[in-house]
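Friendly challenge for the regulars: who can give me the structure tokens for this chain first? No prize, just bragging rights.
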Amino acid sequence: MTDPRVELAGLAGGSTAQTDVLARLDGVSVVLTIAAGRGNDPEDVAGLVNLVNLGARIFPRWQLPEPNGVLVDLPAVGQGPLGDVLANTVARVRSQPASEPLREFQLCWGGTPSGPGLAVDASGWSCSLGPVHLPLAAQEGPPVGALAVGCWAVGQLLMEALEPLGVPCHRTLGFRWNLLTYGLDESPATSAREIVLPPFVNAGCGSVGSSVLYAAIAAHITSELVDLVDPDSFTARNRGRYPILLDAVVDVPKTSWLADRCLEAGIPARPHAQDLAAFTNGTDQPRLVDLVVASVDTVVGRRDATDLLAETTINVGVSGLAFHVSRHGFGDRGCAYCQYVDVAPALSGAQMLAEVVGLPVERIVALEQGDGRLSEADAKALAIGGRYGDPPPAAGSRLADLRRRAYAQASIVSGAGDLRVSAPHVSALAGVVALAEIIKHGAPSLAPFRLGDRVDLDLSGQPSGFVGVARPDGSGRCLCHSGFRRKAWASMHGVGPVQQHLASRHEDAQLDRFAEQLRDVAAGTIEVASPRLRAVGRRC
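First reply, four minutes later:
Bragging rights claimed.
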């Protein structure tokens, strides 16, 4: 059985588990309604289109609202009457259901659903989600809340479907959340103005990197020049995980295709179909880069993104249904590579991986130090080994993906086979959060709201309301321990002792705020669903 929504997590077998999962997904009929007086402005329209685009990739059965005469103009996403765009989106991205619907689940935009389901709402930087409508004050600002809430809604819907199969999750009783402070409340008021993104390097154009651009297009936000850096071309499997792909795009360089979609939306973009090391070293003089958004999926790529020595790096890392976004400079307080420095002996880690994956340890080391992609010989060896299902990993597959499959980091673990279920809403929300930070970076009036350290979000539940801490590397092995690089970074960006002192004070304030939040958790003033956070709060 082949379905883009479900992937075997590793060892051969799993057809029974696959059938069970698909039956749960196909058995839901999603009923989308729009409250009276809503669905007419561009913010609502962007949120509705995004919600359907993400949800229909997992749940193929939708009952859509009656046409309301509103026109949609979202290049690369949809254009025409809203009703037609929603229906066409479902038809383009859904899989053919294999079983009959068993129950309905309602999503009501701007109001309380009449049956089991969720109320969805957004305004500017803020959004709300819950079994009953949680109204929001009218706010001015980019429609990032409208894009974010659709991701949370699809996450809750997926948990509703998969919880009976043993997937751990937290069903929300309702929350308000904003992308300005990342707190569980509505955002502070900000002045309305036209938003133009600053120039930045989009380091990695995979499911997250492309979702940054998708979010900007859906939000009708224009930009100064964006450099798109990625050596890869699209493959057939990308369509299920990339929200910007409504149709199959195969063997086309990601950067050139995305640059075309950006230009259609008024975002000037320059494609670079090369890896980051080649991009960094491709000029006679060092590139003076103000902002990098790094979403590459290898440790080597993270190193090369940091080695651009950008004034600011926004890091995005995804694992399963969770992701983090962190913001970094370069110096005493660490850098974007600190989180990826592996202090364990390289050979012992390679030996463990070799035993599980089924390749020689020497080949594992070579892949880790190279581009991380399997050769034809690697693929043949894995197929002969018989550890993987049908089809086995192919030439060109990433070792990082193979590791996840071999370690069975699946959404569903069962005796009939371990599986991973497609979750495009995770990459989509990571792109929205990265977009929010790019907006803040380019707007001096929003400087107080720029992410001080790191925000972690898990779409198997709801936002925690916390901004956490990104610890600097203490081993002395990270790039930011290089005196030459520190001096070069400070010289390139005019960062003197005063600016470094002010940055340090800002990060200290973030640490104090995080400690205060943990004390509130321990005292019960703030309620959180995460057992880990509760335990940390008690220790504080």
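The radius of gyration is 23 Å. The first strand starts at residue 6 and ends at 8. Your move, everyone else.
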